[in-house]
Design goal:
12% strand; 3-stranded antiparallel β-sheet; alpha/beta; 5-stranded mixed β-sheet; single chain
Length: 429
């Protein structure tokens, strides 16, 4: 989902690293009911399944009370709020956190290492998709348990394709096919664009470029995470493809705040969007006749990116930590996954969930969901587990935005972003 990691959030990440292990509201007193505060970050009505699960678990475990709370209405602010709570000694026991924060979280001693929990054979860690496990793990420390998983594919408006006489995309399509289709689908007279790109400069801008880099065998950083590796001719060609579409073909709606392109798709003004399964519920409710397909590829490689988010646990004393671990393990079972993820229109967190009856109903209710589930197999890499990622992602977001809006060549903008990335990484060591 769009992980806005700018401004105050970046400052919050830095503050989180500075916190010490002292004064975080530990509660090891013997006896009495253990209360677990759970900041789930889900607004109504998506919080209803979680409230029901919390109540059910509390009834089945009389010595534990799970207290679900919103935490913050915008998950972009969750890191900042948790940071403040840690500093004030009143942290939640469990919080919903973006996957791109895991590197910062891993360095804080109040974040519970869940390595032993997931290694228990009963947990079924191998049943989670590779992208989830990779994003959860920083230098051997498992920072969180998957709460939501997604990936990027292409959703297209069937009626616009048919009206323009453009064949529906097939799974083996290329980025050149994508560009050609977008150009044919563009109709200036009707204010219809072939596709769109969010150019807010945040993570929603950046993560759309990474699959195109990975598909060509590239990497974001060098293997030792010490220098930028994304400034390559292949990455420049990928960004220049979008630049050519936007500047020459004029087939790309450039969404400067990242909030308009999906509504424009819903209103029939954009024919194709690179998006994730999180958009399907709105598309369905707007009555769009849409299809979904994996990303275009290079040389048969259709690698995508996944943005898993996590339940992260905080050390508030051994009794509360133990109870939070047990609840999180229970919540992650396939049966509960079906009642939370599938009920909210999210992808299943585990492969075993796809074998349950609820999954059959889910894919019937949400056209395109099965394609996004299958696309999880194409999510093979995670963003770098570097505490500097949030900062150098801003530089890359600016590079993409400058190329698409101002028309600067990708080799120039990516080169400048790579230099800034190297400087930031040097300060982290």
């Amino acid at each position: 989902m769009g992980n806005g990691l700018r401004g105050a959030v970046a400052l919050a990440a830095a503050a989180l690293l500075a916190l010490t292990a002292a004064g975080c509201g530990g509660d090891d007193a013997d006896g009495g009911k253990v209360k677990i505060t759970w900041w789930h970050g889900q607004s109504a009505p998506y919080d209803e399944p979680l409230k029901k699960l919390a109540a059910e678990y509390s009834r089945a475990h009389p010595d534990v009370e799970i207290v679900p709370q919103l935490g913050t209405s915008n998950v972009d602010d969750m890191l900042q709020k948790v940071t403040a709570a840690l500093a004030g000694g009143d942290a939640p026991d469990i919080a919903y956190m973006y996957g791109s924060w895991t590197a910062s979280l891993a360095e804080n001693r109040k974040v519970v290492d869940l390595s032993d929990t997931v290694k228990d054979p009963s947990f079924g860690w191998a049943d989670f998709w590779e992208s989830e496990r990779a994003a959860a793990t920083v230098d051997g420390k498992v920072v969180g348990v998957p709460a939501v998983v997604d990936n990027l594919g292409v959703v297209y408006n069937k009626k616009l394709f048919d009206a323009a006489g453009v064949p529906h995309p097939k799974a083996d399509w290329t980025w050149d096919d994508f560009r050609a289709a977008a150009k044919k689908l563009t109709d200036p007279g009707k204010n219809v664009y072939g596709t769109a790109y969010p150019v807010s400069g945040g993570e929603d801008t950046v993560w759309r470029l990474w699959p195109m880099l990975w598909q060509q065998g590239g990497s974001i950083l060098t293997p030792d995470d010490k220098k930028a590796a994304f400034n390559t001719p292949q990455a420049a060609a990928a960004l220049d493809l979008w630049r050519g579409m936007a500047r020459d073909d004029k087939s790309v709606y450039l969404d400067q705040n990242g909030e308009k392109f999906l509504p424009l798709f819903q209103s029939g003004k954009v024919a194709m969007v690179v998006t994730g399964p999180f958009a399907l519920l709105d598309f369905k409710e707007h009555g769009i006749d849409y299809g979904a397909v994996q990303l275009p590829g290079y040389n048969g490689n259709h690698e995508t990116i996944s943005g898993p988010d996590f339940w992260v646990l905080f050390d508030n004393g051994s009794r509360r930590e133990r109870a939070a671990r047990e609840f999180t393990a229970w919540l992650s079972k396939p049966e509960q996954d079906a009642r939370w993820s599938l009920a909210a229109g999210n992808l299943p967190l585990r492969k075993a969930t796809t074998q349950l009856p609820e999954y059959k109903k889910y894919v019937a209710d949400f056209p395109g969901a099965a394609e996004f589930v299958a696309n999880l197999a194409n999510a093979k890499k995670a963003r770098p587990s570097s505490a500097a990622y949030a900062k150098f992602s801003e530089a890359i977001g600016d590079a993409i935005t400058t190329s698409l809006i101002a028309g600067d060549p990708a080799s120039k903008t990516l080169g400048e972003a790579a230099k800034e990335t190297d400087d930031l990484l040097a300060k982290e060591k």
